Amino acid sequence: MNNLTKMKIFKPANEVFEAFVDPSKIGNFWFSSSSERWEQGKTITVRYDEYNAQLDIEVLAIEVNKKIVFRWGANGEGHIVSIALNEIDHSTTTIEVSEDGFNENDAELIPKLLDNKEGWVFMLTCLKGYLEFGVNRLRGGLVKD
Q: What's the pLDDT tens digit per position in 1-44?
């Protein structure tokens, strides 16, 4: 069971890719901070200051300017997230986020899928605002109680 979210970003794939893997950029649209540059085989610590939360992600695969695959969740048993970049031309990239690992027998599956989709749509919207318009204060706007 997976959740798929797509968005078009009017920037080249290398700029979109760098926004994710460069710790000096990721805080402008997604996590508050990232411990280091995302590279295959690394475990990266990311923080959400808004929720006073920290977690580790395991970078499983990197294809420069094309794909980022990581696992997040407890004890390596979490979900696998694939971020695919498809550069349409030198100024437009389609980004596709797929998260796999949902238990289809979970009684809370639908609320979890909806919450997950909301999170990815929000992150991609913040990414678009950051890369296309230089807006870097949207990330903290989604507050979960």
A: 688 999 999 999 999 999 999 999 999 999 999 999 999 999 99
Instruction: Name residue 68's amino acid.
Output: I
**Longest CA pairwise span in the chain (Å):** 45
48-57 long-range contacts, Cβ below 8 Å, gap at least 24?
49/140, 50/140, 50/143, 51/144
b/e per residue, 73-111, with b = 16+ CB within 10 A? eeeeebbbbbbebebeeeeebebebbbeeeeeeeeeeee
Cα(7)–Cα(79) distance, rounded to whole angstroms?
A: 21
Read off φ and ψ for residue 35, nearest 5 degrees: -65, -30
pTM of the model: 0.93
Question: CATH code for 2-139?
Answer: 3.30.530.20
